[in-house]
Q: What sequence folds into this?
């Protein structure tokens, strides 16, 4: 399996300047290759230029401009051209699927922050001084840079990347290693229901609060953005250092919120993986859930529109994006794969409207956001808990169906599952928590 590592770099002043020049020159190469593709398509009878054609020109580019392009690794420049090629491939793929994608854009110096080295030893060398107690990574044209290695790297290093985040520099490694030993079996299964008021609710009735990191930082972020808007009103060539400091302040706050959100997602996913063998979750279509409301033209008054609840939907979309469900589910799937756990995605429709006791499904079963009350049998519970129970039931049905399709049918009475509110539908679901 492939695992990624990210370490903080400690470059000197000269090395930091060299790293900045490397990003700037790779950005120029990216923009030049993009301009060539645009010109060829517009002026040369819609001719398409591929990666192989542009990669063959690298030798001439390096000899023509040895000061800027010839000093850097040839492989890293090829990786930059592949990066552009992937952008165009994604652009045409989205067109074929019926989406409305944006055309690949030119990158400013501040928007091009990563240089990739496809192979350790080709233009870069991880742990270039193994006998030195300080870990260093060597980049062609930069030198040996100190690394703050806070944990050991297991396996063979395959690729190396250097990344800039604000005023800090990081090295990102991918290492190939053997599949780790799975965690011991716990005999527990759980279903989770993602939400906004609570980040998630499990089928045992436990709640994980939503930290709302973005809302907590909203006041500081609003002040920083107001300062940025005030300093940014002048012409670009007359902006002062106050404008640059305001830009860095806004970016720093956004990075802090991002790190907090990732930290919460990692810890929550790790807790689930450690305590449960099988985890069922809703197959959420987050992009569709966070779409903007379509306007409603007023047929009686041309040019005017009827109320469509756009303000409320905008707040809901912001809350969905702040919760970071997609990031969490990606992390959960990755950790479960490493630990030998099973993750099952099930259809999310009517999971909070179906009664686990009698199976009756109706919109009236959920009179409020939090309350569930079955109009047929009278069963009452928290709506998120009901959703988690139904998700677990659907996940176990899917898992059993998959196993039965792969193995001979079992005898009657070998395995059965019952679902009752107030009982743990996953057996010993939360005994270790």
A:
């Amino acid at each position: 399996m492939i695992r990624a590592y990210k370490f903080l770099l400690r470059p000197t002043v000269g090395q930091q300047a060299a790293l900045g020049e490397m990003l700037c020159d790779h950005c120029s190469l990216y923009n030049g290759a993009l301009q060539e593709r645009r010109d060829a398509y517009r002026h040369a009878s819609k001719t398409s230029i591929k990666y192989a054609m542009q990669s063959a020109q690298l030798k001439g580019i390096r000899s023509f401009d040895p000061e800027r392009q010839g000093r850097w690794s040839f492989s890293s420049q090829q990786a930059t051209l592949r990066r552009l090629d992937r952008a165009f491939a994604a652009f045409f793929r989205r067109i074929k699927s019926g989406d409305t994608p944006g055309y690949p854009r030119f990158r400013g110096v501040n928007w091009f922050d990563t240089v990739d080295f496809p192979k350790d030893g080709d233009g870069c060398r991880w742990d270039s001084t193994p006998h030195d107690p300080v870990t260093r990574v060597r980049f062609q044209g930069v030198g040996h840079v100190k690394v703050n290695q806070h944990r050991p790297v297991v396996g063979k290093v395959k690729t190396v990347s250097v990344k800039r985040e604000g005023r800090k520099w990081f090295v990102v490694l991918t290492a190939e290693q053997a599949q780790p030993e799975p965690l011991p079996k716990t005999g527990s299964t759980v279903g989770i229901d993602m939400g906004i008021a609570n980040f998630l609710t499990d089928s045992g009735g436990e709640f994980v609060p939503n930290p709302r990191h973005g809302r907590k930082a909203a006041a500081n972020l609003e002040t920083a953005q107001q300062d940025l808007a005030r300093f940014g009103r002048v012409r670009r060539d007359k902006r002062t250092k106050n404008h640059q400091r305001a830009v860095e302040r806004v970016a720093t706050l956004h990075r802090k919120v991002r790190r907090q959100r990732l930290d919460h997602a990692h810890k929550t996913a790790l807790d689930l993986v450690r305590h449960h063998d099988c985890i069922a979750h809703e197959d959420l279509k987050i992009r569709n859930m966070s779409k903007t409301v379509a306007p409603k033209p007023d047929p009686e008054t041309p040019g005017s529109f009827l109320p469509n609840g756009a303000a409320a939907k905008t707040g809901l979309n912001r809350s969905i994006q702040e919760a970071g469900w997609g990031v969490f589910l990606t992390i959960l799937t990755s950790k479960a794969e490493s630990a030998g756990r099973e993750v099952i995605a099930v259809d999310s429709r009517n999971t909070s409207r179906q009664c686990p006791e009698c199976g009756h499904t109706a919109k009236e079963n959920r009179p409020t956001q939090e309350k569930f009350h079955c109009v047929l049998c009278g069963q009452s519970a928290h709506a998120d808990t009901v959703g988690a129970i139904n998700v677990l039931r659907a996940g176990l049905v899917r898992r059993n169906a998959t196993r039965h399709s792969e193995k001979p049918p079992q005898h009657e009475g070998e395995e059965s599952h019952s679902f009752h509110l107030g009982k743990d539908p996953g057996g010993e679901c939360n005994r270790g928590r």
In short: Residues 2-176 form one domain. The two ends are 30 Å apart (CA to CA).
